[in-house]
């Protein structure tokens, strides 16, 4: 059967957005400036203002943002970087591109990093930690920052799923956006993200302008000024088309996130009784967090059967992620001789339901009734 309720949908395909995007493309084309121009500078200012970050730098992708954020902290070959085992390959490859070694750490059932696992993985070579705010909910930054400071670690927040996610900072008694608590926050603007462009793009928000200065050099050949490389850099720049499109999208992000939260509240309220009876776990909203539901992920022991029953009824769903890093050929060696029981369990149980700002209440309710029917007939 054709998929009638897709897992995700791009904002730019909405008729009004298409017209706006065409005008924006025209503006960039006429400017004749395609890389590192006014659109990129304006977007950096506007996204930093949104985040409440002191400074930030547009880069080529979310993966590059992780690499550059680590390089800016002096992470290099011979160093070890702690990474959650239940994360996409991009997170590990972002670490590997620095020359450092990712060290995989098991997670808890709520996808957050396990502190005892972090402690057990520490060696004299551990220099950094990459925290992934998976599916739009922030990890426990108070605990992780205390652990990192105690052990002199550089902290990079992988915010590819967490544009606008927040957590309550107990020491400061205020809400803080994902990306602004560590030394640097790495964002992806891949089209399906909560804030997505029409191609690849990324961003590093930085805890200080000094870190941003290093990043500016690193993203463009190590240049402090033209043709004078003061360090070995790369080419990873946010292009003007992406920056301009993202400037159009950014003002809509708060509304889109609120829309995702309302749909999640609907799923939670209407699915709870039937899910409970079927032994299915729904995402638990946590106090002190503002979840932005990049994905709405449920857990079922009969995940594969559930996924095919949903697909046969026209509901698109996804599996994020079917294999932990420790079970992927390229990354297996970074978890050798250790076990990852929780991330293996999660990989066998997770299922993402349709979630995007243009999902209608009617469609979400249809997903609910289809799930109820499947669970009733078990
Ligand atoms: C958690 C996470 N981190 C990093 C990335 C990498 O982002 P990009 O595809 O922009 O390189 C992704 C991409 O999907 C992601 O989901």
Descriptive account of the structure:
By secondary structure, the chain is an alpha/beta fold. The protein has two domains: 11-250, Type I PLP-dependent aspartate aminotransferase-like (Major domain) (Aspartate Aminotransferase, domain 2); 252-376, Aspartate Aminotransferase, domain 1 (Alpha-Beta Complex), CATH 3.90.1150. The chain is 39% helix and 16% strand. It contains twelve helices and 14 strands. A seven-stranded mixed beta sheet has the order 1-9-8-5-4-2-3, with helices on both faces. It binds pyridoxal-5'-phosphate. Pyridoxal-5'-phosphate is lined by residues 61-63, 88, 90-91, 132, 158, 160-161, 188, 190, 200, 202.
Briefly, what is this?
This protein is an alpha/beta fold and 378 residues long. It contains twelve helices and 14 strands. It folds into two domains: 240 residues, Type I PLP-dependent aspartate aminotransferase-like (Major domain) (Aspartate Aminotransferase, domain 2, 3-Layer(aba) Sandwich); 125 residues, Aspartate Aminotransferase, domain 1.
Q: Which CATH first-tier class of the largest domain would you pick?
A: Alpha Beta
| Assembly state | single chain
- Biggest sheet character: 7 strands, mixed
User: Within the largest sheet, what's the order of strands?
Assistant: 1-9-8-5-4-2-3
| End-to-end C-alpha gap | 21 Å
Radius of gyration: 21 Å
Please state the average pLDDT score: 96
Helix content: 25-40%
Listed once per kind, the bound small molecules are: pyridoxal-5'-phosphate
- The total strand number stands at 14
Secondary structure tally, helices? 12
CATH architecture of the largest domain: 3-Layer(aba) Sandwich
Strand content: 15-25%
CATH topology of the largest domain: Aspartate Aminotransferase, domain 2
Category from helices, strands and their pairing: alpha/beta
At the fourth level of CATH, the homologous superfamily of the largest domain is Type I PLP-dependent aspartate aminotransferase-like (Major domain)
């Amino acid at each position: 059967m054709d998929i009638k309720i897709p897992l995700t949908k791009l904002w730019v395909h909405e008729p009004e957005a298409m017209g706006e995007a065409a005008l924006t493309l025209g503006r960039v084309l006429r400017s004749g400036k395609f890389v590192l121009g006014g659109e990129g500078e304006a977007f950096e200012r506007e996204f930093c203002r949104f985040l409440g970050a002191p400074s930030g730098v547009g880069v080529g992708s979310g993966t590059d943002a992780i690499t550059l954020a680590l390089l800016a902290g002096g992470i290099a070959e011979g160093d070890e970087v702690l990474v959650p085992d239940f994360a996409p390959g991009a997170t590990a490859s972002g670490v590997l591109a620095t020359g450092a070694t990712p060290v995989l750490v098991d997670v808890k059932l709520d996808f957050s990093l396990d502190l005892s696992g972090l402690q057990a993985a520490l060696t004299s070579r551990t220099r950094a930690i990459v925290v992934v705010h998976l599916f739009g909910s922030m990890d426990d930054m108070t605990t992780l920052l205390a652990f990192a400071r105690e052990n002199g670690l550089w902290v990079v927040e992988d915010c590819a799923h967490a544009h606008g996610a927040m957590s309550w900072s107990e020491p400061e008694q205020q809400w803080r956006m994902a990306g602004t608590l560590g030394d640097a926050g790495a964002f992806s603007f891949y089209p399906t993200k909560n804030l997505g462009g029409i191609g690849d793009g990324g961003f590093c928000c930085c805890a200080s302008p000094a870190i941003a200065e290093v990043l500016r050099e690193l993203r463009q050949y190590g240049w402090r000024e033209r043709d004078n490389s003061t360090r070995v850099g790369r080419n990873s720049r946010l292009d003007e088309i992406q920056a301009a499109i993202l400037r159009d999208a950014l003002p809509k992000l708060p509304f889109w996130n609120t829309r995702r939260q309302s749909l999640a509240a609907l799923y939670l309220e209407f699915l709870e009784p039937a899910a409970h009876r079927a032994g299915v776990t729904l995402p638990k909203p946590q106090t002190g967090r503002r979840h932005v539901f990049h994905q709405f992920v449920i857990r079922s022991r009969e995940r594969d059967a559930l996924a095919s029953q949903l697909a046969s009824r026209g509901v698109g769903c996804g599996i994020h992620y079917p294999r932990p890093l420790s079970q992927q050929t390229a990354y297996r060696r970074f978890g050798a001789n250790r076990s990852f029981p929780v991330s293996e369990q999660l990989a066998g149980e997770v299922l993402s339901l349709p979630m995007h700002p243009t999902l209608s209440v009617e469609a979400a309710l249809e997903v609910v009734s289809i799930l109820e029917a499947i669970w009733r007939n078990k």
